[in-house]
Amino acid sequence: MPDSSFPAQALILAAGRGERMRPLTDTTPKPLLQVRGRPLLQWHVDALAQSGCTNLVINTAWLGEQIPAHFGATPHASDGQFLNITYSEEGRDFGGALETAGGIVRALPHLAEVFWVVAGDVYTPGFTFSADALARFAASGKLAHLWLVPNPPHNPRGDFGLGPDGLALNIPAPLREKQRAYTYSTIGLYRRAFFTAPFVQSVSAIPPGNPGGVKAPLAPMLRAAMDNATVSAELYTGPWTDVGTPERLRELNATHPEAHTTETPSP
């Protein structure tokens, strides 16, 4: 285990079962499936290392022993860079994944005051985990900052809105046909205080480290924080794929990545 006196700047979520990916995930955790010659998870690890991230947490559950077996002990060399990896082994400790918020709270003792969170099953080769973005977020006073993407075919109504002032908006599902919503890319910056905010009752009572293994989703917390105007967002229009089915995986391995941009949409 790496030295915990140096908190991690990022958490990669890699604990899910990947039911829609079966039978591929019957023997391989989804984040280790090959995308264009590299395990899906490797793309994030390399991008984080190139951005200057030095300490990383990866949570695991389903077939979780395969992930540390692949990446090895700390330090981890990635494209000539080095980073320390801590594993939050939910499967070993609790017999299964703790859902997104439960898993993040489990990892909190290893994380810095502000940190990146990204799902291990999205492919976004052009995204930069920018140190400038992290610094701007740290100075903003917001509790979370999300990257939203144009809605893919499997999520046509989107998840959250984006106001002209850069605030993420909690748009109820029935209103998303009239008010434009975007899909949450599963890339975001978070402040530790987000997980203890008084309006997030579903998680704020769970102590850091989640010793009881409480399962808790993230989306209700984000919606509560948006209602309190404490979540900002921006639109990312570069290549992004939720690698959720064998068909999407095949398409990725048969095509080439496109150029990427980050922009603010017109009101």
Question: Can you describe this structure?
Answer:
The protein is α/β, with parallel strands linked by helices and 267 residues long. The chain has eight helices and 15 strands. It has a nine-stranded mixed beta sheet. A two-stranded antiparallel sheet has the order 2-3. A two-stranded antiparallel sheet has the order 8-14. β10 (161-162) and β11 form a beta hairpin. The model is unreliable at 257-267 (pLDDT under 50).
What topology does this entry show?
Elements: E1 8-14, E2 34-35, E3 38-39, H1 40-50, E4 55-60, H2 66-71, E5 76-78, E6 81-89, H3 90-94, H4 99-107, E7 111-119, E8 122-123, H5 131-140, E9 144-149, E10 161-162, E11 168-169, E12 183-191, H6 201-204, H7 219-227, E13 231-236, E14 241-242, H8 246-254, E15 262-263
Parallel strand pairs: 1-4, 1-7, 4-6, 9-13
Antiparallel strand pairs: 2-3, 5-6, 7-12, 8-14, 9-12, 10-11, 13-15
Order of strands in the sheet with most strands: 5-6-4-1-7-12-9-13-15
SSE order:
EEEHEHEEHHEEHEEEEHHEEHE
The share of residues in extended strands comes to: 25-35%
Structure summary, number of beta strands: 15
Biggest sheet architecture: 9 strands, mixed
Unreliable residue stretches: 257-267
Average pLDDT confidence is 85
Distance between the termini: 47 Å
Shape estimate: globular
